# Entry
Amino acid sequence: MRTYCVTGGAGFIGSHWCERLLSLGHRVVCIDNFADFYDYKIKISNVLQSTGTKRAFPYRNKKEDLSRLPDFVNGPAYKLVVADIRHSDELEAIFEQERIDAVIHLAAMAGVRPSIDNPLLYEDVNVRGTMQVLEAMRKHGVRKWLCASSSSVYGNQLKVPFSEQDVVDRSISPYAATKKSCEVVGHTYHHLYGIDTIMLRFFTVYGARQRPDLAIYKFTRMLDHGEELTVYGDGSTRRDYTYIDDIIDGMLGALHYVESREPVYEIVNLGTNHTIELAELVQTIENELGRKANIRRLPKQPGDVEKTYADITKANRLFGYEPKTQLAQGITRFVTWYRSECVW
Ligand SMILES: NC(=O)c1ccc[n+]([C@@H]2O[C@H](COP(=O)([O-])OP(=O)(O)OC[C@H]3O[C@@H](n4cnc5c(N)ncnc54)[C@H](O)[C@@H]3O)[C@@H](O)[C@H]2O)c1
# Structure
């Protein structure tokens, strides 16, 4: 049994990741501040599901709920600490108490469009917060690190598929710029302090517990409620949609890789190597729900990239990454979850 510190473990990807680590018999120290990017109750539900807690949680208000939640879910294998990665004293207390084998850093302000409205908050959490995590690791001798980067670092690059060797100096949103910064800062700490690192560039992740601001969740909900579907642009943008289970498998491969070697500093795409047009995504959801969308088109949003398309040969070569879920299959699973378990 190893002890892994997961930042952002109450979020969409983080809760699946914690669940998988627990199922493999590891101990998880989860740090999350339940940021207001979306409803904190969704994240409480994520924590309950990822820890297999069946008891109903008595919601009152955010402050009280977050102070009671750790007692509700904590046990020998799982410890939730409601803390902000920007606060060094909070991190210090955790790293002082725990013997952490590796950190999987997922906490961030996610989302491209809101980063344009609030760039300094994104910089504060995603860059400064990441540096605080690295500082805590440095001081406490933790030398293995996975960090969430993003396909958005490729900007509007024309060459496809996107490869890790491509130069990514042309971000088109503050969010993307912060993720690129994390990659650079990660390299600095690797070079200076020997922190073995894999930066994982996730490509549009979807599945159960998906963030409510993301297209697949929004479209499903609007269609299900018989609402008009708001689509930005002419439907020709393309994304490499990656199912959550494939991402978690990829993360496990990366974790094994970084833990079994040194020195390691790698940047690795986790996508599917298929790119799907927005119009086709809408059609797939329509087919699954058995409803036809009434589409309202709005202008393309600033910061949105034209396409994402991952070259995944590096992840395959380094740790055998092989995504298995086709879009139609993943949407079927997502809608099944939406109908049976989604509580928001
Ligand atoms: N979902 C995707 O398609 C996608 C794609 C590319 C990259 N990523 C990256 O993957 C990671 C996880 O994304 P997600 O979709 O699960 O997002 P999410 O918002 O569901 O999860 C992020 C978690 O971080 C927590 N957090 C935010 N600020 C914090 C702070 N200051 N201190 C402590 N915790 C804080 C949030 O409360 C949340 O639970 C993020 O780094 C994101 O940028 C996600």
Remarks:
- Residues 3-204+243-273+311-323 form a domain with the Rossmann fold fold (CATH 3.40.50.720).
